[in-house]
Amino acid sequence: MIGSAALSESRCHPLGLTLPSRPDGLTHRALILVASVIHLCSHASAVAADFPICGSEKRVTCVVDGDTVCFRGTKYRFEDIDAPEKGSLAECPPEALQATEATDRLAEILSKHEFTIETQGKKDKHRRTLARFMIGGKSAGEMLVGPSGPLSALIQRKAPHRGSPERPFVHPAQPSLRARGGAVVTEGLGVQRWRRNPTRSNPAIRVRGFVRILERTPVKLPDVLVPTYVQMLRALSAWLGKAEAQMPDGKAEALLSARLAHDMFPLSTQVRFACVQAQEGVFRLQGQAFPSSIEVLLDEGRNAAERPGSIADAQARINETVAIVNAVALEALDVDAETLIAHALPAGMIFDLKAEQYARDWALPQFYFHVMIAYAILRSEGVDLGKADYVAHMFAYLRPGTLPTR
Fold first, then answer.
1. Cβ neighbours of residue 113 under 8 Å, at least 6 residues apart?
2. What integer pLDDT is reported at residue 355 of this predicted model?
């Protein structure tokens, strides 16, 4: 209870509360509770705002990255997710690219919806207010994350910002990742988790205050192999289409017999073998028997010198392979990265690999070899192709307004 002496020395609170100038412990805790309730209710009414991407100008209301925004001059850090890092903070180019996508999607979500802000006023070490921007019962972070969120393959929910040893983050699948400053980085395909580093003073094991540990995580076929196979097979199809357009009246058909070197297979074979590698990769990782289409492709490829077929035939094989790979992806089971695979070659050699090693060290390089040789044959025969044709899939990620005009 506050005594009369305390009341006589009271001072006026801006909200109309009468506060003692020297509150006792109980009163002090009560005041903190009242202040907390007031703070939590301060953004109870839904608001709407336009959220551009933050630039070099003063940050008032804008999106910094996939988990940080500025609103009315206050910087907020989403407390329920971790997004890929942008720019120089990214550990590799794909992470920077995914960070840009996360930033753009967050700006779109916040600009299109009314939201409320839930926060207890806590701040992280960068003095950002930890909060959740709520939209119709879901946080903006949850809308970015799976299972139905647009960035479910890039971001995962993380444990509460404080008091938890783990902050999960899905890193782009990379065959080799190197951190700056000689930090230890594990390699492989799949989810990588960041754990608080109890010995962060040791630069040999420090990566921005966290040590990256690859845990035994299923290799996701749809997220790793299938998109690569599909986008590059479609690119190969487009190259053949360009060849036909640039060499009309059937002249392009002769390209199917062209070789990059006299002891290499012709273009017709390279197309078939690229399709073989795509189909073999997904079926072998799934532990399933190969479909009859693989034997057909192998037979055509081996005999292409005498029977090169037509460009229409090559296009048909590409389209069939894309359909087969996509069908497998729809029903693909998770593959344990530690699963052992015995990969036997016709010459009698047998390679013993783990599933992630097979995907990284054999399936993808072999596929790319045949695709790249096909590209090189077409270029050497005068077909007008360039890097934009080779990485045509990247234009889906191009930020609007950044394409050079000349």
1. 48, 135, 136
2. 86
